[in-house]
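hiii so um. not sure if this is the right channel but i have a protein structure encoded as tokens and i wanna go backwards to a sequence. like what aa goes where. can anyone help
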């Protein structure tokens, strides 16, 4: 059998590999579980490898199945994009749009725009994910991502949205109690709130820029709380729990409300800019183009 002919078995394999269930795959494909199982067996036969471990109560991918799935999924995703764009080249943007946004940034700047976007594009169903981990667009099926870090992929396009500056912040009550540091060294034994990356599970280090413009690592002497959510970082700092280092755009509302004060501004540094990521410009779906253009036009970030 020609290799291209084998693609007819891919839907059954991909749905089964994703759900680890013939029954669930059958429901999604609107066929019988027996038909799904038959297609998977046919694919295994033509490939000459076993793709699944089967027991009475469980189904799991073999090592060969994992390797095949990691290669087949992106290829099938690109093929689906090709078909979708060919059918909808001149149609209205529509369909499900899966987007991931950093939680704190999303709540402050993206959620207020959702109503206007849906009003302008009523045929788009926005599937919005708020979280602080880096994602793999293709592997996880996202159409668009925002952030300043993402899994490396030469096929991913990055478009700058805004600069990202870092602020060292504390509540007025904390500064009244301990005094306001005028250099990183003066933080001393003042309590500090740290941030743990949801992607790497590592505690993010504090860096400042010294008088010579060089990066200077500072290790807080008195860390009292560590969180993995930026909004919680700002909240705890605003309650007077400790000093925090956070992106200025995420602390701006707290600063404007007087809940936080930016300290050591002359030592603050800039991170890589916040970008909007999407798959290759080739065959870009109308719904993705509509969302990107809308965000670029309407996003207003106060640094």
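sure thing!! here u go:
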């Amino acid at each position: 059998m020609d290799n291209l002919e084998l693609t007819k078995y891919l839907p059954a394999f991909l749905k089964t590999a994703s759900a680890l269930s013939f029954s669930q795959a059958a429901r999604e494909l609107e066929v019988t579980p027996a038909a799904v199982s038959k297609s998977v067996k046919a694919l295994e036969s033509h490939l000459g490898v076993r793709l699944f471990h089967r027991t009475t109560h469980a189904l799991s991918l073999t090592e060969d199945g994992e390797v095949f799935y990691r290669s087949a999924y992106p290829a099938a995703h690109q093929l689906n994009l090709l078909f979708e764009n060919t059918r909808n080249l001149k149609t209205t943007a529509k369909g499900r749009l899966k987007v991931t946004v950093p939680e704190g940034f999303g709540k402050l700047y993206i959620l207020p725009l959702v109503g206007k976007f849906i009003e302008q594009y009523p045929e788009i169903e926005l599937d919005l994910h708020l979280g602080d981990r880096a994602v793999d667009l293709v592997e996880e099926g996202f159409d668009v991502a925002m952030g300043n870090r993402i899994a490396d992929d030469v096929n991913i396009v990055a478009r700058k949205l805004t600069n990202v500056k870092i602020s060292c912040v504390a509540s007025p009550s904390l500064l009244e109690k301990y005094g306001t540091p005028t250099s990183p060294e003066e933080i001393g034994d003042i309590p500090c709130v740290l941030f743990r990356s949801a992607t790497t599970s590592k505690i993010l280090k504090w860096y400042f820029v010294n008088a010579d413009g060089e990066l200077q690592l500072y290790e807080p002497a008195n860390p009292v709380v560590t969180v993995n959510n930026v909004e919680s970082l700002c909240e705890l700092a605003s309650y007077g729990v400790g000093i925090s280092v956070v992106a200025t755009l995420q602390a701006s509302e707290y600063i404007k409300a007087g809940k936080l004060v930016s300290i050591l501004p002359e030592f603050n540094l800039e991170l890589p800019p916040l970008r909007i990521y999407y798959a290759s410009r080739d065959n870009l779906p109308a719904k993705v183009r509509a969302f990107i253009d809308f965000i670029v036009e309407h996003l207003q970030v106060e640094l």
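oh and The longest strand covers residues 156-170.
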